[in-house]
Design goal:
Helices cover 66% and strands 13% of the residues. The chain has 325 residues and is of the alpha+beta class. Among the domains are: 179-262, Alpha-Beta Plaits (2-Layer Sandwich); 263-325. Strands 2-3-1-4 form a four-stranded antiparallel β-sheet, covered by helices on one side. Strands 5-6-7 form a three-stranded antiparallel β-sheet. It starts with a helix and ends in a 6-residue tail after the last helix. Residues 1-8 and 10-65 have low confidence and may be disordered.
């Protein structure tokens, strides 16, 4: 039994041997296929990693605007790691050169734009200075105009003040002459003197005007000299009533003994100029009353009283007249 069983086992093993060889060959083929697949997978992964690295590199270049630097420590292949290290060094150097170039370019741009900026600043300052000079010139013109106006106004005020002073003095002088008259006649003898002046004049008035004036009614009697070839005497009364009585009598009698109000030199000049207008028939009437000169252009026109130069100019302006030379 035992021998028969052993023979059967032996025969069965012999029958299985070819199968075993076939199985081993299949295993070999499977093993080779697996190795080739692994090799293909590794190659595929390497290409995939390379593409991914390139993609990341491009992305880094776009995002950071600089060259990407690889981490060499994660590379297992020494040759690739060496190449990547050289590449990283080159990239670092290029990055530094690019930064230096940017800085140099910025400095160059600043140097180029700096003169233009300075020119703009100088132009603005020049415009500002021009405006300031225009303002100064305008102010200078205004100051010159004001100075001229002030000078003219000062001259006008000084002239007015001088006129006021002159008129005031003339008024005071006229007040002192308010009780005086001037007697002028050809009947006064040339031989009359200051000592015989009062007696001779009173006798003349008595003979021609029929007025008996006593010497005590006079304050003073002065021999003034000649006027139009005639002796002139100043009589100063104690009161204006006595003076006015003599004036009215002289006007009503119309003799060759002329009695006139005594005027200051200023008013005598005004009266002379007005009489020239009357002789030229530019005015109707001109006479003296109480130290003032009364004048009319027309017989029924307005009466003006002239005592100052301003009064005469006002009359001439309103009457539309000018003084003849």
């Amino acid at each position: 039994m035992d021998k028969g069983q052993n023979n059967k086992r032996r025969s069965s093993n012999q029958l299985r041997t070819p199968n075993i060889k076939g199985e081993s060959s299949n295993k070999t083929r499977k093993t080779c296929g697996t190795a080739s697949q692994d090799t293909t997978l590794i190659t595929h992964r390497h290409h995939h990693n390379t593409r991914q690295t390139t993609t990341n590199m491009a992305t880094a270049t776009v995002q950071d605007n600089s060259f990407p630097v690889f981490d060499v420590k994660k590379i297992t292949d020494p040759e690739i790691a060496k190449l990547l290290m050289i590449q990283n060094q080159t990239i670092t150097k290029l990055t530094q050169e690019m930064q230096e170039l940017k800085a140099s370019n910025a400095d160059y741009l600043n140097k180029i734009t700096a003169p233009e900026h300075k020119l703009d600043t100088l132009e603005q300052q020049s415009n500002t200075h021009t405006q300031s000079l225009d303002t100064i010139n305008t102010l200078k013109d205004q100051v010159t105009l004001l100075t001229t106006n002030i000078t003219e106004e000062r001259s006008r005020v000084d002239q007015q003040l001088a006129n006021v002073i002159t008129n005031f003095q003339d008024h005071n002088d006229q007040q002192q002459l308010s009780d005086a008259v001037v007697v002028n006649s050809k009947h006064l003898p040339p031989t009359v003197t200051q000592e015989t002046c009062m007696e001779t004049t009173l006798q003349l008035i008595k003979d021609h005007l029929h007025l008996n004036i006593r010497s005590d009614e006079l304050k003073d009697c002065k021999l003034m000299g000649y006027h139009a070839g005639k002796k002139t005497v100043l009589l100063k009364f104690q009161t204006s009533l006595q003076r006015n009585n003599l004036l009215k009598t002289s006007i009503s009698m119309k003799t060759d003994v002329y009695v006139n109000e005594c005027l200051t030199k200023t008013r005598q000049n005004l009266l002379y100029r007005l009489r020239k207008l009357r002789y030229a028939q530019k005015i109707h009437q001109c006479f003296v009353r109480d130290g003032k000169i009364a004048v009319r252009k027309q017989p029924t026109g307005k009466r003006y009283f002239i005592s100052t130069e301003h009064d005469l100019k006002t009359f001439l302006s309103e009457a539309g007249l000018t003084e003849s030379e």
